[in-house]
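Write out this protein's structure.
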Amino acid sequence: METSIPRAPRPLSLDDIPTDATPAELVRGFVPTPRFAHVSFASYRPDPREPSQAAARARVQHFVATAGAPARSGLLARLRRARGSAPLRGLYLDGGFGVGKTHLLAAAYYAAPSPKSYLSFAELSYTITSLGLANCLAAFREQRVLCIDEFELDDVANTRLAASFLRGLRDAAAGTRVITTSNTLPTDLGTGRFAADDFRHEIGEIATAFDTVHIEGEDYRHRPRWEGMSLGPLPDTAAVHDAYERYEAQRGGKLLVDAPTLLARLSALHPIRYVRLVAPLEALFVAGLTPFDDQDTALRFVHLVDKLYDQEVRLALSASCALPDLFLPEYRDKGYRKKYQRCLSRLHELLAESAEAGVGPSLGGRDPSG
């Protein structure tokens, strides 16, 4: 989501950063994030060892190229809808972390005819609850293409919202093409997070709205540029403070904050506002992280990392443990496992990029196994 908050090259404190905004201000800029602001189908480089990647690119290109086709209308369309035989025209990109799903989604946005929107599933859920389902449908059914990143069902409420929203688009027969990404097959959404078996009708309805495209491959964040970089102990607090003092921000603010203060601020904000918290920043220095002993706090940190990654904010961390151990096994290995895996993958890339850019200490030596 784009934001109009300017970046000022100076030290900042948390109190300097306004996060208040109306729903209209928050949703005004549903476009690809800065990290994906310049991607295209041409810049997507399929792994030659994984033919599913080239096949997915071709499938998405065709999907977008036909997005200008007129929607069905008239008596035939009404009869087809009444019989339940007019499915939403959707494409669901399923695959592991770092196989290029979001790259393809952003490329689809840029190639698609207007009007169009690009947003995360969390932003869509917030928009529906803020504006109401009817108003949200009125806005989005005018779109030729709607790109939704990171489709996830975390609870009963957003499961019902998602099913109702997709049903509303289908029943409007407006011809909106929906393309979404996820780390979970549509039939498995919600598994391990809530009593998903009690909502199989809604989950099944969501699944039938899409054709699924599987993308195989390894996480590109661990390919040659980052391959072998240590995920061992993070720097200590003194090293992060020194890095903050040395770093000269050029295009945005720099912020040094201790972990408890940052986590307290996150707990007081709706996650949709995290983008406003990080948008003025060029670099964030966080001192004193310890393993999360509360799942809500851990998930808020995961969402913050998503926003830092999207907005290309440089990051330096100090912690009392190795990076993977920030999330306790009883959290990271259960229902939200894929969220935590995605977070660790993105943290790995953020810290490596930041070290190369002179933000924070090096990640450490080369991994002997690499």
